[in-house]
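Fold this sequence, please.
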Amino acid sequence: MEHILGKEWTITPAGGSTGEAYYAQNNGKHLFLKRNSSPFLAVLSAEGIVPKLVWTKRLENGDVITAQEWLEGRELTPEEMKHQRVAKLLSKIHHSSELLDMLMRIGKKPLTPEEMLADIKENERATKQIDSRIEVRQAIRYLEKQLPYVQYHKQVVCHCDINHNNWLLSADNQLYLIDWDNALVADPAMDIGMLLHWYIPKEEWEDWLSRYSIEGEDNFFSRMSWYAVAQSLAFLQWHKMREDYQEAEARTYRLKQMMDDHHLLQFINEE
């Protein structure tokens, strides 16, 4: 990175799972740099969903470096995920035709629940020698049984990792949703289901959804629970494949808790 900006810049790794992000500073100037960010970043910046994109540079080896404003701020707390600003920003994302058009143009195909379940089952076969917990088997069985009831054809841009530490509140009180590497075109219930199951007490779901301004849909709660379980399994498998067994154990516990709290096991034996 030094040869791009010059020796006068101090560059430090920004962490993250890819190891391709960096902070750069020079005489009061601050940038957030990333290697091979999606071209989707430009429209996210234009929509005010991520911090402003400053420049993009293509290197001789084909890599693309992007620089964004480095904003002073903090991640949201789990409690703050209840706030109406979170609901409003997620609604804006899901209802943006510009975001959907751009993501489709760069080659993202709509993800169906059938494809998601197939990926989960394939990953489970690959990790079965590591762990074969009854909670995982029950969750997969639930996804199989409920698959016919989660079909939905209004696809939107989904962030797919609605964790509180991906929400940035800047020092000037602007809210952003960052880290779009896993974005997909999918059912909006994918994002909403994980957010509500992780952060919002069930008795407050209707209030949160009213702030999001969701339209009445008969099978919405079924879809929401289905995707919450599917994403929980996908994250659990991701940690197992990286031998992060402590986090995988924590994810297994949260999966069991979700299944128990929302009485999802009752659907496994229903015909």
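The CA atoms of residues 9 and 27 lie 8 Å apart. The beta strands are 10-13, 21-26, 29-35, 53-58, 64-69, 73-75, 156-158, 167-170, 175-177, 184-186.
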